[in-house]
Amino acid sequence: MNAVKPANYAKVKAQELQGKLYLAAKENPKRRFHALYDKIYREDILWEAWRRVKSNKGSGGVDGITIEHIEEVYGAERFVAEIREKLISGTYHPLPARRIEIPKPDGKLRPLGIPPIIDRVVQMATKIVIEPIFETDFKNCSYGFRPKRSQHGAIRHIRREIRKGVCWVVDIDIKGYFDNIQHEKLMKLVEQRINDRRILKLLWKWLKAGFVKEDQFYETELGSPQGSVISPLLSNIYLNYLDTIWENKFTEIGAIVRYADDLVILCKTKEQAMKSIDVLKAVFSKLEIQINTSKSKLINLWDDKIGFDFLGMHHRKIPKQVKGIERYILRSYPSKKAMKKMKEKVKEVTEPRNRLFWTMNKMVEELNPKIQGWRNYYGLDSFADLFLNKIDWYIRKRLMLFWNKKRNRRKKHSNSRLAGIVAQYSGLKKLVG
DNA sequence: TTGTGGGTTAC
RNA sequence: AUUGUAACCCACAA
């Protein structure tokens, strides 16, 4: 008799394992785990890993196998079973990643290494098993790529610190962080917690898997490929070295808040800020990474003349009347870059050129989810309403333009009035209000 | 409560 | 064509 397994059986079992590993690691901070490899080929773990990779709907790797192909031709059951066999017999070997380059917001190119689906699944299984162990070591100041931690958490952390009287902010950009991670140093840090040789070997192989670009194979002797599943975790393990040193020795000179490779240090005095930069340089030289001096800044937050960008928001002290006295309060609102990006997205959707046959409803349908998303992200601070209002106004202006073009007429009525009517009858959402 | 589908953000 | 991790939101289905 077979007991019927619920649909989320694998998910629950994976969570159970993660909980156990988390507690075991927390209980003994020095413990090095050795029996982990047999966990990654557990059927429930592999199924959960496959489910997660599948739900990302990413494209195929260098072997050309796509998620669609596995599901509809090959069969997920067979795919997972074969991965399991390969892991058990030790015949699993990663393939090189497929290298592509995508444009970054600043116009430069970001190299991406896309591993084949099979490697993504094995990496995900490994991540499920080892992540809870490292989670116990990660510090409170680290927010990027971590479960249950968000950009909003990082921003709230900053706002909390600044309310304590911080005036000096060190804003650090690391030169090509992912691409400069040293394999040997990273693995030394991994080995502080893991001594399962088969797991370590897997991690080595993924780091050294290389990539293929235009049918040419390239080796990777440095860096962790952006696009692979474990890279974000590995990058946090690497920089946790900094977090740990900071928490043990330097909390007095400032508070560090980190989102992946983007970090700020919040200090009360200029001297502390300068000292922080020295400490960072010393730690970075040990990790063999470098500060991008042209993008890093030291900011004095004492008035409303200057602020800093972090996680898509601009943070600056703005005067506010509180019970008759003027006070400077930290405000967080969309950065110039973010404003530009939102306007561009709106323009893209409302471009009348090829959308003339669209109905107003269709356009609103397209716009509403975006508005919802922006609202959720930037609506953190009520001061941001000032800026979000501008975007609302811009959306209505663009919609007006579309409406007039469609009706093939020049504006006869007041734009703002018509825009109001248009919005009212079409169910367009607002960023503010 | 769980499972789909759409979207935003960050890096 | 565009990968990855994470958070959040909305809609739908039982």
From TrEMBL:
Reactions listed under catalytic activity: DNA(n) + a 2'-deoxyribonucleoside 5'-triphosphate = DNA(n+1) + diphosphate
PROSITE patterns, sorted: RT_POL
EC number of this enzyme: 2.7.7.49
One term of GO molecular function: RNA-directed DNA polymerase activity
Pfam families (UniProt xref): GIIM (PF08388), RVT_1 (PF00078)
Residue ranges annotated for the Reverse transcriptase domain, each copy included: 83-315
Enzyme class name: transferase
Keyword set includes Methyltransferase: no
UniProt entry keywords in alphabetical sequence: Antiviral defense, Magnesium, Metal-binding, Nucleotidyltransferase, RNA-directed DNA polymerase, Transferase
NCBIfam families, A to Z: group_II_RT_mat (TIGR04416)
Family (UniProt): Belongs to the bacterial reverse transcriptase family.
Protein name as catalogued: RNA-directed DNA polymerase
Species assigned in the record: Paenibacillus eucommiae
